Amino acid sequence: MLRVRVIPCLDVANGRVVKGTRFVDLTDEGDPPELAERYAAEGADEIVFLDIDAAPDGRGTLLEIVERTARRAFVPLTVGGGVRSVTEMRDVLRAGADKVSFNTAAVRDPGLVRRCARRFGSQAVVVAIDARRRAGPDDPGGGWEVVVKGGREATGIDALAWAERAVAAGAGELLVTSIDRDGTGAGYDTPLLRAIIDRVRVPVIASGGASGPADFVAAVRDGGASAVLAASIFHRRRHSIADVKAVMAAAGIPVRVAIGALA
Amino acid sequence: MTRIAVVDYGAGNLVSIEQALSAAGADVVLARRADSFADADALVVPGVGAAGPAMARLRRRGLEVPIRAWIAAGRPFLGICLGLQLLFEGSDEDGAVTLGVLPGRTVRLPDAPRLPHIGWNQVERRHAHPLFAGIEEKADFYFVHSYAAIPASSANGLILAETTHGGRFVSAIARGSLTGVQFHPERSGRDGLRLLANFVEIARGAGAAARGRPAAARAR
């Protein structure tokens, strides 16, 4: 039976893992490959690097980080942030990533998703959707709007319609982040997840709002997520990946219990 | 030292596979042309994406015929993901004609709740094989694919392991030292590294046996 994945997300800037709330008050948390290896040893099913720097002159650093990680952590690696062309995607895959996640660039140019899926296969193309409730943070009545640039810019695009279009263009997976919940610890936006999952046939990764293992259970049970992503609760060591998986397993959710460490 | 050639035809991430085989004690060479794998002990064909473009790249680089000859000679081979599917006659994905060294076809995963099938899933063996030595029955491996090979019924004996995602599909095949896995051992943590180390052992054994034979026999 296919396991529900638990995925730690590492924000990377200037070659270091950083943490902070929505791009402010960033603090240095260490070397990305080292942290990725630690998470893999703790049972991470996949690792996501989000390049929050994404400046063109920082690409070399990112590729070097990806390669060092691929040599140490033998679990799948997804890289998001700043990839804007087939050539850039090729470079990231060649450095050792398995998947590339597109956000703002895909909204601006859905053809980019199509071109990359045609060249590398849908399984390598993730579309990240940052969504915000139209009617306010607690009311799903008005639906959800796509926001870009790390939540700073509204697009007016309906998030559910965009999810369908992204999959039609070739996305093999969607990474759905609730901007209302991100950083709040109020739990995943499960109605958002459910609304998207009912409209697409590809796996959906839940993101934004986790504060404890019960939130992961809700994302899967109520939201229908195929995978659950979180950042701060793992970085701050409030909960280990193993803790989260134990609670999920107790709730009857299939998770991988074997560790993914080096031989 | 056991020399493993990994065929490099522009089909995705080779860093992890190279690193994993090196960690298992192999001397790894990335082979872009046939002459760079002629003297290797074993051949690995990785790959992700669609069958048609992958076959086109193999043909363009003059690799199709040498790979077929390698397998026909019974030398150790590991196909990973698309590298397994290409061994069969053709793929429903884009109608591609593939290597055809094994009878059967590649089809879209039947009855899958969601595609692509992405994530860790259990690999259930039908029988023992040195490729899985020391790995627990029903161990989890990492998959990322929408298609899988179905060996012809005459070649059912090829099926080494199966996995369930909606329906059941073939997740590993073997015939002697010809092996293939639908999952990604280079992304499957400790058990994946163990499987690759087992393949290096298979190659080492075959290499030692070949060196024990007269030179004339090896040259064939």
Distance between the termini of chain A: 24 Å
Number of contiguous helices of chain A? 10
Number of DSSP-assigned strands of chain A? 12
| Shape annotation of chain A | globular
Query: Which stretches of chain B are low in confidence, meaning pLDDT under 50 for 5 or more residues running?
Result: 215-220
Strand order of the largest sheet of chain A: 1-4-5-6-7-10-11-12
- DSSP summary, beta strand count of chain B: 13
In CATH, the architecture of chain B is: 3-Layer(aba) Sandwich
Instruction: Report the C-alpha radius of gyration of chain A, rounded.
Output: 17 Å
Low-confidence stretches of chain A: none
**Helix vs. strand class of chain A:** alpha/beta
Please state the CA-atom Rg of chain B, rounded to the nearest Å: 16 Å
A few lines on this structure:
The complex is a heterodimer of chains A (263) and B (220). Chain A has 263 residues and is α/β, with parallel strands linked by helices.
Question: How would you sum up this structure, described in words?
Answer:
The complex is a heterodimer of chains A (263) and B (220). Chain A has 263 residues and is of the alpha/beta class. Chain A has one domain: Alpha-Beta Barrel (TIM Barrel), CATH 3.20.20.70. Chain A is 35% helix and 26% strand. Chain A is built from ten helices and twelve strands. Chain A has helices at 32-42, 59-70, 86-95, 104-108, 110-120, 159-169, 190-197, 213-221, 232-235, 241-250; strands at 5-13, 16-21, 24-30, 47-51, 77-80, 99-102, 125-133, 144-148, 153-158, 173-178, 204-207, 227-230. Chain A has an eight-stranded parallel beta barrel, surrounded by eight helices. In chain A, helix 3 (86-95) links the parallel strand 5 (77-80) and strand 6 (99-102). In chain A, helix 1 packs parallel to helix 2 (59-70) and helix 8 (213-221) crosses helix 10. The longest helix of chain A has 12 residues, at 59-70. With 220 residues, chain B is of the alpha/beta class. Chain B has one domain: Class I glutamine amidotransferase (GATase) domain (Rossmann fold). Chain B is built from six helices and 13 strands. Chain B has helices at 15-23, 51-60, 64-72, 82-85, 189-212, 215-219; strands at 3-7, 27-31, 42-45, 77-80, 90-91, 104-108, 117-122, 124-125, 140-145, 147-151, 159-165, 167-175, 178-181. An eight-stranded mixed β-sheet of chain B has the order 2-1-3-4-13-12-11-8. In chain B, strands 5-6-10 form a three-stranded mixed β-sheet, with no helix packed on it. A two-stranded antiparallel ribbon of chain B has the order 7-9. The longest helix of chain B has 24 residues, at 189-212. The two termini of chain B are 22 Å apart. The model of chain B is unreliable at 215-220 (pLDDT under 50). The chains are: A alpha/beta (263), B alpha/beta (220). At the A-B interface, helix 3 of A face helix 1, strand 7, strand 9 and helix 5 of B.
